[in-house]
Specification:
The protein is 54% helix and 19% strand. Strands 1-2-3-4 form a 4-stranded antiparallel sheet, covered by helices on one side. Strand 3 and strand 4 form a beta hairpin. The longest helix is centred in the middle third of the chain and has 42 residues. The radius of gyration is 25 Å and the shape is elongated.
């Protein structure tokens, strides 16, 4: 089992991770984890733990993890939005086929305001993207 363990372990935190170096080469043959850094994924900051100096290998592993983590979080964001589209479709079906007048009374205003807000932002962002694609001389 010890041979299968990675050299680094990243304990996920809200804005990044605590980074540990995994050691299995000790007299007791125990797994030891020495915290070497704290990573803030939002601002890209890597803080060595205590008086430690991070090696080039440490930094390469941490930066590689950060790139993978950012890609994973971006993919999760898109997945969440696509799931929201599914929920909107399911909500439409529920409104059309199952909702009672009392249920509709409870949710209609909130849904309409949220959808209006979303539509306004989407239309504005779409217009901004379209304007960017038109050369300045043609505007």
């Amino acid at each position: 089992m010890a041979g299968d363990l990675p050299e680094y372990y990243f304990r996920i935190r809200e804005n990044g991770a605590a980074v540990f170096k995994v050691d299995t080469e000790n007299r007791q043959r125990r797994i030891e984890m020495d915290q070497i850094a704290v990573v803030n994924i939002k601002n890209g900051e890597i803080k060595p733990q205590g008086e430690r100096k991070l090696s080039a290998d440490d930094l390469r592993e941490i930066e590689g993890w950060m790139a993978k983590r950012l890609a994973l979080l971006a993919q999760r964001d898109i997945d969440d939005i696509l799931r929201a589209v599914d929920y909107l479709n399911l909500t439409t079906q529920w409104v059309q086929s199952k909702a009672t007048d009392e249920q509709l009374e409870e949710v209609t205003d909130s849904l309409l305001l949220a959808m209006h807000d979303l539509r306004s932002v989407l239309v504005r962002k779409k217009a901004e993207r379209m304007l960017k694609s038109i050369p300045e001389s043609e505007r």
